[in-house]
């Protein structure tokens, strides 16, 4: 028996897509819902188990933590998870701004080498907190060797050619005669997990943090937290909880820091000057890329993804690697 399991807020971007995929594949779909308050109530437990104060990791770990509890209650012991594909194939929306294939490749290398601090940390600890085992097929060493040997030019986003993020991976499952997935699902714009569960999740976290962290506290943040000083009230809120559980200096030093837009490294922030004033790990911070990016006109609308219909059947992928 194959199960497709998802967790979302009601009306989330991922909810309709998950239902459609389950129906298309004929799998049993277990759909769990949580509220913003459910997530907020779990934040302290999440930080205790995940052992980080990194904003994007906590945002994504909370629904995964809640989902793991539900999965365990079903009697399921092992799940397959997709960690690593965005790092290997340049799947995050900020990769649209990569200036050339060398920069693109170097960024994928940086992301892969830091997985143990972010996505793998989340996947491992959010599941193991409930005795659930997560396996990550995209991080099989042989698969990584093959994927990283692909010419990064073939991975780059090219709007003129209709190539979006994770193009190579999507094309591998694009079979006109025996389709694996509906085309509009296969070519759906990337949604980071913490966005895809529902845009109101991140908005709710920010509002909750703003109610517990004052402007005066933020002005004094560099004195209270001289290492990796939080720059937002949300980051300050998580840091307070982390320091209560793990007050040792050795603990706070294990958590990475630095500027980030849409899960980028600090180096990739340099790709677009406009991002420097819009630092947030949400995919909606990728201005000019995300279909529902933060902006004055439609700040939180759930715009539908564009359907890609006119796609060439095959493309050649040269096997040239750039080693970083």
UniProtKB/TrEMBL annotation:
CDD domains: Asn_synthase_B_C. It is an enzyme of class 6 (ligase). It comes from the Eukaryota. The keyword Nucleotide-binding applies. Pathway: Amino-acid biosynthesis; L-asparagine biosynthesis; L-asparagine from L-aspartate (L-Gln route): step 1/1. Its EC number is 6.3.5.4. InterPro entries: Asn_synthase, Asn_Synthetase, Rossmann-like_a/b/a_fold. One of its GO terms (molecular function) is ATP binding. GO terms for biological process: asparagine biosynthetic process. The keyword Transmembrane does not apply. GO terms for cellular component: cytosol. Keywords: Amino-acid biosynthesis, Asparagine biosynthesis, ATP-binding, Glutamine amidotransferase, Ligase, Nucleotide-binding. Residues 99-251 form the Asparagine synthetase domain. It catalyses: L-aspartate + L-glutamine + ATP + H2O = L-asparagine + L-glutamate + AMP + diphosphate + H(+). Pfam families: Asn_synthase. This is asparagine synthase (glutamine-hydrolyzing).
């Amino acid at each position: 028996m194959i199960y497709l399991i998802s967790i979302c807020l009601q009306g989330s971007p991922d909810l309709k897509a998950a239902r459609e995929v389950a129906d298309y594949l004929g799998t049993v779909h277990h759909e769990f819902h949580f509220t913003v308050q459910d997530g907020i109530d779990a934040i302290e437990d999440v930080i205790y188990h995940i052992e980080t104060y990194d904003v994007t990791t906590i945002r994504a770990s909370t629904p995964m933590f809640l989902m793991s509890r539900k999965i365990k209650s079903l009697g399921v012991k092992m799940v397959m998870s997709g960690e690593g594909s965005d790092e290997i194939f340049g799947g995050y929306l900020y990769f649209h701004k990569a200036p050339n294939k060398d920069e693109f490749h170097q960024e994928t290398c940086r992301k892969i080498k830091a997985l143990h601090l972010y996505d793998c940390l989340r996947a491992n600890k959010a599941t193991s907190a409930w005795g659930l085992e997560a396996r990550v097929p995209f991080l099989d060493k042989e698969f990584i060797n093959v994927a990283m040997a692909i010419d990064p030019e073939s991975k780059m986003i090219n709007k003129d050619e209709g190539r979006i993020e994770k193009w190579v991976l999507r094309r591998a499952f694009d079979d006109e005669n025996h389709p694996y997935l509906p085309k509009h699902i296969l070519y759906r714009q990337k949604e980071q997990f913490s966005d895809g569960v529902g845009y109101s999740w991140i908005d709710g976290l920010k509002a909750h943090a703003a109610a517990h962290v004052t402007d005066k506290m933020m002005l004094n943040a560099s004195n209270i937290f001289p290492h990796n000083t939080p720059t937002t009230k949300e980051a300050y809120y998580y840091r307070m909880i982390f320091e209560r559980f793990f007050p040792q200096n050795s603990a706070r030093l294990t958590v990475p820091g630095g500027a980030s837009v849409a899960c980028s490294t600090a180096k990739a922030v340099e790709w677009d000057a406009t991002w420097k004033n819009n630092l947030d790990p949400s995919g909606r911070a990728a201005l000019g890329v995300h279909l529902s990016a933060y902006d004055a006109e439609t700040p939180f609308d759930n715009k539908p993804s564009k359907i890609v219909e006119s796609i060439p059947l095959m493309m050649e992928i040269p096997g040239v690697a750039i080693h970083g």
